[in-house]
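[User] I have long wanted to understand how a fold can be written as tokens. Those tokens are not coordinates but codes from a learned vocabulary of shapes. Could you go through the record with me and say what the backbone is doing? Thank you; the sequence and its tokens follow:
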Amino acid sequence: MRLPTPYRPEADVVAHRLAALKGALDWISVVPTATPWVRAVRDRPPPFWAMESLLREYPISSAEGLALMRLAEALLRVPDAETAIALTADQLGRANFDGAADSTLARLSSSAIALSKKFLPHLSDDAGDAEPGPGLMARLGARTVVAATLRAVQLLGRQFVLGQTIDEAMGEARSAHRKHAALRFSYDMLGEGARTEADAQRYLDSYVNAIRSIAAAVNGDRPEDNDGISIKLSALHPRYEDAQRERVMRELVPRVWQLCELAADAHLNLTIDAEEVDRLELSLDVFEALAARVAAERPQWRGFGVAMQAYQTRALELVEHIAAIARKYKLRLMCRLVKGAYWDAEIKRAQELGLPHYPVFTHKHHTDVSYLACARALLAAPDAIYPQFATHNAGTIAAILQMAGQAGDVPFELQRLHGMGEGIYREVMKSTGVPVRIYAPVGRHKDLLAYLVRRLLENGANSSFVNQLGDESVGTGELLSSPLWLDKEASLPLPLALYGPPPARRNSQGIDLTVESMRAPLLDALATTAVPVVPAFDPQRAAEAVATAAAGFRSWSHTPVSQRAGALRHAADALEAALPRFCALLVKEAFKSWSDAIAEVREAVDFLRYYADEAERIMRPVALPGPTGESNELRLTGRGPWVCISPWNFPLAIFLGQVAAALATGNTVLAKPAEQTPAIASEAVKLLHAAGVPPQAVQLLHGAGETVGAALVAAPGVAGVVFTGSTQVAKIIHRALAAKDGPIVPLIAETGGINAMLVDPTALPEQVVDAVVQSAFRSAGQRCSALRLLLVHDSIADDVVAMIRGAAKELAAGDPALLSTDVGPVIDREAFEGIQRHLQRLDAEAKVVVGAGEPAQALPNLVAPRAYEVPSVSSVKAEIFGPVLQIARWSGDPQAVIDQVNGLGFGLTLGIQTRIDSRAQALASRAHVGNIYVNRNIIGAVVGVQPFGGEGLSGTGPKAGGPHYLLRFCAEQTLTINTTAAGGNAALLAASA
């Protein structure tokens, strides 16, 4: 790796940055420089459309600000009037604009809201209430309000998007040049990252056209004096990610070089924009490959550059590394320093992956410290770097001016975003001669307002300078207070403490596969781990195994719950420590991809810890109220031997989840793993025994379901059965238990489903496609929760289906041991042949969306992603347990569509993609489904966060990983003691004396 790990203690990194600034910056002298700028802006505030004014009127933390933000993000892309009316009513109806300040913006908004209250449908209409809908005149009024709202959002977009085309943007720039000769522009052809090859080619064409247009207007040969362009690497390749490194270097570098040649020949500044933390090392590989080519073919070009994010804990090392690249190739690079744009996403990713630390600073002032340390380093390398400081913070600007003055005659420029920071820069440009470049978004408003929302979120936070600048209650001294101090504690709990400080359970620790040092143990384990042979159990000995379990139950059930829970926690710690070995087993025996293997080990660890905690919680005796003279206590006990039958698709997590639930509650276990994956289960049982679970308490009984599983279910003395698998087998088990003599035996069954996702016209297509590809094709579609049926509104279906087709073609199907593989083989030949029969039927009956391509690798049982368009929901007759997606279009009432989904009889997972909050709630209430996910994928339920399980044909409940699950493993006992039996109620008599 080029840089240190991004997951280091925040306090250690900040201490180093503060040491780097020691003696280089006098903050006391910064304040007098910045104070006049702040006062001038407050005395003469910017226009009411400017970001500062917008945030003052409608803070993002308020319902009004959130409503405007949501409308700006979604309204322009809605193609039909009915949905636009529903979205507008939903968002505006939740806010109260009556108390807005007396400004032009506030008066315009209040008028629009007043109209909306009169003409827009009530929110209850979408919830299915019987209240009649609006009449014709009211409907016409609603359309008028929506049209006015659309116009308002378009006007809003104009304030933050320089132009909808490059020519329009350059026209605006020329007007600005005439007013301020020192202004330069960096055009950004904005949009989402590419999901398909067609997306990437479209963005490439857009960049080429933009560079040629800018070049035509250039006069000089100094990139510092000319307008330039910023490009996003993820827009130029549909798989711009670390796992696809070889492909990226082969395909992307030539595309970017094409742009570099055009920019170099025109003496333009071309900046490669910053992306997320997990892409940084890959970006550096691409950047150096391009730098080497610049040195070889365009050595006089001084406009090649990169953007760097100060909020990353590796920012200073990145600056040093970029300077080293410049010197290695004898180049002068242009480097834009920004605070960073993906903070919340980076925080969430670290939490979800269970990483040891955050890759970004959690305190805003720590980011400020990092920014200043990076600025000093940039100013100290004038031979290698032309610094470009992008900031709207008056204190930061003043600090840069001070450090630049100390560094001597070092050229640099300041940058701001179009539509933001205008007031501060108006004053800065009056008092300094420093050149200023405006970062200017270009593109259609409907494509770029998601970008606007990001800017609003970044600068609308209560701690941001832009927000506080417009807040008169924040004094100048507070606004310009020194950031040069260390907070030793992160402002957020670390990812491993996500669920609270001790004694709360610890989040399972994970791995970032993009960090070489973290993935190396996995690859080492793959090379050294063999899949052991597990002897088959003789089904004739089923009664003997049950007797052993019954004997073990007598001692295990009387073991204190704290001791049982302790054994499970020890097992969790041991499994976490052995994560590489178990991941290697999952890859080799179950054909899991590396990311799926890591997630499964972590889920197993979470199950062990969660059920340990839950057992201690629910198995405490509960004293109940009653009449004087007696005590009443409710307590839970184990039932006896449980048969745990687990599937091959989660051979560790579901296996250990079932076993841990039974053990935690004092039961003993007869564990029957899937016949395809016994080695993983065997190693898990060894780990439990080593952690203190007695051999009699958990026995591994490997064999076929038809023989070993059936014998165990039928054996006398079994106290319960927990099963995960097909609906058909669950019914067989249910009938077998019902036919047995003796006690009624409880069955917990979690089965599959025809899981659907409904997409309405307000959804962002790129987010939809990401969710669909993950839900339908990850794990080769071999998840109970996987997406089987996509329901797309007819008005957007053509575009969404085309994007799914393109995105699916970009997936790599092959050997799961390779980091680059997205889709591995299905579990065995029987599964493969069953899927093939479904595909033959669909090839004949349905419209092919994603057909059978030639896989890059010839592997047994490999099924590449497939997708078909079918006429309706009712056309889908069965669950296809593989990477096969069926797509149907819908129109009209979305609740009627949910009724059709309910009619299929399954009820495991459902996805809803909409920006209409009331619609999401109404559809969720109507669905007979166990797990409902809004605006995300529908897989990967997290233990204790998203308890998992369905209803109807999808299972019996209760939900695994939830607070009610363990209760099903328990018998209840009430103990009532007559405390007056010895002659009276002494306590009562004493109290009355």
Observations:
- The longest helix spans residues 136-160.
- Residues 99-109, 123-133 have pLDDT under 50 and may be disordered.
- The CA atoms of residues 604 and 653 lie 4 Å apart.
